[in-house]
Specification:
CATH architecture of the largest domain in chain A: 3-Layer(aba) Sandwich
Structural class of chain B: mainly alpha
Structural class of chain A: alpha/beta
Low-confidence stretches of chain B: none
Radius of gyration of chain B: 20 Å
Largest sheet of chain A: 5 strands, parallel
Strand content of chain B: under 5%
Helix content of chain B: over 70%
Number of helices of chain B: 13
Oligomer: heterodimer
Number of helices of chain A: 14
Order of helices and strands of chain B: HHHHHEEHHHHHHHH
CATH class of the largest domain in chain A: Alpha Beta
Shape of chain B: globular
Strand order of the largest sheet of chain B: 1-2
Number of domains of chain A: 2
Helix content of chain A: 40-55%
Shape of chain A: globular
């Protein structure tokens, strides 16, 4: 009898201490955020160390404002744009170091690899950097949030807006691989749907450096708009060469996948008048300016949409943990999808069942050099594309998680 | 002198190899297994490359094609056809071997820089095909390959089980290379490397031997590639990119060209650096690797293992 009593007392005591220790059920007592990004390659400018900084800022702000009862740690690594390095690192983080979420993940092959590992280990993948739509379509899963943008939002936003504003005839300069072809197909469909006409397209090898013959073809097509269905160095090279051939003043270029860093490196002289879609611009309003100037103070560069989105996604993730009182993957994901996102980056942003975060996008036109009044004053905001129009509608989704 | 020292040297090597083998058996309990598995894959890849460069004197600049092709074939077989992992690995290896045979027939007609350029050109063609066709997933790579059950029995999603499979694959591959080098066939390869006209004058069909060596090397590179796909559950474009062909040259030179353990040591060094430095120095990884390579080429011409061997030999003479 006494022994039994003792045991029950001991059990109660043990339970009490357990529940006290696990007040906010956080695995390992600490929320660990891993930033897996490109710190050395092509994308280090648009994500890279700026994304790490944005993450740290989000954590600092969250601690200062929300005073959470759990600890937060940030780790980062360079995936060198290689899927195997990324997958190895993510696995190690999840299995060995108790990392709760892998974030950023620029480069599609990296993103796809890490989201599979995350699913296997039941951890969360927050993607601000990658562009591909398969992340929330064929390959979608319930532990991934695709946060900032995707190729659909960029290509369709630009193509629709440019066509509506009078750019009726199009010619595409397409990188000859699956990604470029998909980009062209999506954009061409939007152009025709909005009453425009596609006069033709030309495919260049990937990666390409000499675009002269392709550009001359585009020039002789007489199209009003030349759509650049390529990315990275291919796009910037094509733009530079288009300026040299004297194409740009008479015909306008539309970049289907471009970032403010591309405009910054090319300069306004070569890019003036171009249309592009962005998810964020530092000079939109007082809120974005305030945050971006803080960012600029450390990084000496204005933030890209990927970096701003990184801040927002991490902050939202931490808020969800606080609200749910746990870092359990399922519960946090449910909470993240339940809460709207309202910060300097997004107004009333929501995460859909396919993992796509939808928010307003902006159609930008690059300023003339004479219009630019101060450093990084690059864009005229031509149109705000409402969230419902900006992203691929759920009815077209190929994600098995979407119930139709 | 030689009659006395030869057996003791043999015993010493045997002790060394069995020691290393046992170390490999217990390693996953101390070091992160996924990392070790990657290391073994690259060690096998570099050893296969070394068989060609170090022992036959043929510098192939297209070995990534074998690594990558086998990886994609294995991935497609396991994921889409649904075969068991060992069949996938076998299929990948055979395809790499066949590809090696095609490459070999074309390339061995030339030597030196021409040989290297032909292999590079052919490898670039493979890269192009992988980038273009639908089955490989283009630049997204082949994703979501299940590890499956070995022989339909052992669940490989367990890291330790997977580790021992990789370790077995590596040991078998390494043993094949070791045997090849120490066989009469290996001796002839060395003879060709040292003096090709003399080997011809001795009556050897040099091209046949070179082709054989090329096919063996390609198959083993494929073995490494197929295994790698299973470990990471993906095959990516970087596996067939010429960077990988360059990296394996770096690994081999760093470890010690023409030594048996050298490539393994070299690849271990590079992979560890890539992995460990990833979260510490960021963009400096490439600079550090470049510096190491330059220092190695300038100061330790024989590579890590080569220098150690030379040291032991010098001590032995004294």
């Amino acid at each position: 009898m006494t022994v039994k009593k003792l045991i029950s007392v001991a059990c109660t005591a043990a339970l009490a201490t357990l529940s006290a220790g696990a007040q906010a059920q956080i695995s390992g007592g600490v929320v660990k955020i891993g930033v897996l990004t490109d710190l050395s390659g092509t994308y280090s400018d648009l994500a890279g160390s700026g994304a790490v900084l944005a993450t740290k800022m989000a954590v600092e702000d969250f601690i200062a404002k929300e005073k959470p009862n759990f600890k937060i740690e940030v780790v980062s690594a360079d995936h060198q744009n290689k899927a195997d390095i990324a997958s190895n690192k993510a696995r190690e983080w999840f299995e060995r170091e108790g990392v709760d979420t892998a974030t950023e993940l620029v480069t599609t092959s990296v993103a796809l690899a890490v989201m599979k590992v995350a699913k296997e280990k039941e951890r969360i993948a927050l993607m601000s950097g990658p562009a591909s739509t398969p992340i929330t379509n064929e390959q979608c899963n319930d532990v991934t949030v695709h946060y900032t943008y995707d190729t659909y939002a960029l290509a369709n936003g630009t193509a629709r807006a440019v066509t509506k504003q009078g750019g009726r005839s199009w010619f595409f300069l397409t990188a000859d691989y699956a990604f470029g072809q998909a980009l062209e197909k999506d954009a061409a469909a939007v152009v025709t749907a909005n009453g425009g006409k596609v006069l033709g397209s030309v495919r260049h090898p990937f990666p390409g450096s000499d675009f002269s013959s392709f550009l001359l073809k585009a020039q002789s097509s007489g199209a009003q708009v030349i759509g650049l269905a390529n990315a990275g160095a291919d796009t910037t090279n094509a733009i530079k060469q288009a300026a040299e051939f004297g194409i740009t003043p008479t015909q306008s270029l539309a970049g289907l996948l471009m970032f403010i860093t591309d405009i910054h490196s090319l300069g306004l002289r070569t890019t003036q008048g171009m249309y592009l879609t962005e998810g964020f611009y530092w000079d939109l309003n007082d809120e974005t300016r305030a945050w971006s100037k803080r960012f600029f103070g450390v990084q000496k560069k204005m933030p890209t949409m990927v970096q701003a989105g990184q801040y927002s996604s991490v902050y939202h993730y931490l808020s969800a943990i606080k609200a749910a009182g746990t870092d359990d993957t399922k519960k946090v994901m449910t909470q993240m999808k339940k809460m709207p996102i309202n910060d300097f980056f997004a107004k009333n942003g929501t995460i859909r069942e396919d993992g796509r975060m939808v928010h307003d996008m902006y159609l930008m036109q690059v300023k003339k050099p004479s219009e630019s009044k101060y450093p990084w004053d690059y864009y005229n905001v031509r149109q705000t594309i409402p969230a419902a129009e900006a992203f691929q509608p759920l009815s077209q989704s190929r994600c098995p998680l979407v119930k139709k | 002198m030689s009659t006395a020292s030869q057996p003791t040297a043999l015993i010493k090597t045997e002790v060394l190899y069995s020691g290393l083998f046992i170390l490999g058996l217990i390693a996953p309990f101390a070091i992160y297994p996924t990392f070790l598995m990657k290391l073994f894959c690259f060690a096998l890849f570099a050893s296969a490359f070394n068989l060609l460069l170090g022992f036959a004197g043929l510098l192939s600049f297209g070995h990534a094609a074998f690594l990558g092709t086998a990886g994609y074939v294995c991935g497609l077989m396991v994921r889409d056809v649904g075969v068991t992992p060992e069949i996938g690995i076998l299929a990948g290896t055979v395809c790499a071997g066949l590809l090696g045979w095609v490459f070999g027939i074309l390339a061995i007609r030339r030597t030196g820089i021409y040989f290297a350029m032909i292999t590079l050109a052919l490898a670039q063609m493979v890269y192009f095909v992988v980038l273009q066709i639908k089955a490989t997933g283009g630049e997204d790579g082949l994703q979501g390959v299940p590890r499956g059950h070995l022989f339909g029995l052992i669940d490989l999603s367990d890291n330790i089980a997977m580790y021992y499979l990789v370790y077995a694959v590596f040991s078998i591959g390494f043993f094949i290379i070791y045997r090849t080098i120490h066989s009469p066939f290996g001796q002839i390869l060395k003879a060709i490397r040292e003096n090709e006209p003399r080997a011809i004058s001795l009556g050897y069909d040099v091209n046949k031997f070179k082709l054989m060596a090329f096919v063996i090397s390609a198959s083993l590179a494929g073995l490494a590639g197929a295994t790698k796909t299973l470990i990471f559950q993906l095959a990516s474009l970087s596996d067939v990119h010429w960077h990988t062909s360059g990296e394996v040259v770096l690994m081999t030179l760093l470890g010690g060209l023409g030594t048996i353990l050298g490539p393994a040591v070299g690849s271990a060094t590079i992979v560890t650096l890539q992995n460990e430095l990833a979260d510490k120095v960021g963009s400096w990884v490439t600079v550090i690797m470049g510096t190491i390579f330059v220092v190695c080429v300038l100061a330790f011409r024989r590579g890590i293992v080569g220098e150690i061997q030379a040291l032991i030999q010098r001590a032995g003479i004294r």
